[in-house]
């Protein structure tokens, strides 16, 4: 495994290459408080190309900004930076990483070649309404990584269904793929229940969804 450092605003992102191989790239996005896996996960072993994994800002080997300021959109910028480096790719997201994959599929529909949403930490976020107007104060004794600010702020990040479905619709309309979004999650918070009903979204196991996207990528 190799690690490449990519600058993004005021932080340095750690991009791990778990498998370097000719073929379409697959990017893994981890859940809240997690870090990139040390090896290719079971569901991705059949992927026919290179496999990469990103440590989000404040997680794993990526930089930790002073004073927090984490949102899902900031992490989407992390993943977009990696996508620009790779050119394009299929995304496999767990928990919070699944939500970030959905945002990026809508924001970069020509670069994202299908996404697979899987269960993991941070999938629900803070619900559909703001939970509190109070300022979040993380545990001052917390040891990073992960950054205690990231855990406190992203766990409360609002996930309204209509916001999520807007990105799913944009992916369906602009990606050129029949099914740009595949849902493999058992846990279905409100935003994901709404996304499943959108055109272009299918339910499939992670293995089957990746096999379908790989077939598209290797046939082009």
Silhouette: globular
Number of continuous helical runs: 6
What helical percentage do the residues reach? 25-40%
Please summarize the sheet with the most strands: 8 strands, mixed
Beta percentage is 15-25%
Radius of gyration (CA) equals 16 Å
Low-confidence stretches: none
Question: What is the topology?
Answer:
Layout lengths: L1 E7 L2 E9 L6 E4 L21 E5 L16 H15 L2 E6 L1 H12 L4 E7 L29 H7 L6 H14 L6 E3 L6 H7 L4 E3 L2 H14 L1
Parallel strand pairs: 3-4, 3-5, 5-6, 6-7, 7-8
Antiparallel strand pairs: 1-2, 2-4
Helix pairs in contact: 1-2, 2-4, 4-5
Walkthrough of the structure:
With 220 residues, the chain is α/β, with parallel strands linked by helices. It is built from six helices and eight strands; from the N terminus they run E-E-E-E-H-E-H-E-H-H-E-H-E-H. The chain has an eight-stranded mixed β-sheet, sandwiched between helices.
Concise overview:
The protein has 220 residues and is α/β, with parallel strands linked by helices. Helix content is 31%, strand content 20%.
Can you give keywords for this protein?
alpha/beta, 8-stranded mixed β-sheet, single chain, 6 helices, 8 strands
């Amino acid at each position: 495994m190799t690690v490449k450092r990519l600058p993004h605003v005021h932080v340095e992102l750690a991009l791990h290459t778990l498998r370097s191989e000719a073929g379409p790239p697959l990017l893994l996005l981890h859940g809240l408080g997690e870090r990139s896996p040390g090896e290719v996960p079971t569901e991705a072993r059949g992927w026919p190309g290179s496999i990469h994994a990103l440590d989000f800002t404040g997680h794993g080997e990526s930089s930790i900004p002073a004073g927090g300021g984490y949102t899902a959109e900031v992490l989407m910028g992390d993943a977009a930076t990696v996508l620009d480096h790779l050119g394009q790719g299929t995304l496999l997201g767990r928990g919070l990483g699944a939500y970030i994959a959905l945002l990026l599929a809508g924001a970069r529909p020509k670069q994202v070649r299908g996404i697979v949403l899987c269960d993991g930490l941070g999938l629900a976020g803070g619900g559909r309404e703001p939970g509190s107007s109070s300022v979040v104060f993380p545990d001052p004794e917390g040891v990073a990584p992960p950054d205690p600010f990231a855990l406190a702020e992203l766990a409360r990040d609002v996930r309204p269904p209509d916001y999520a479905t807007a990105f799913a619709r944009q992916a369906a309309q602009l990606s050129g793929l029949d099914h740009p979004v595949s849902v493999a999650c058992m846990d279905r918070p409100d935003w994901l229940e709404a996304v499943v009903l959108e055109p272009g979204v299918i339910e499939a196991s992670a293995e089957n969804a990746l096999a379908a996207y790989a077939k598209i990528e290797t046939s082009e």
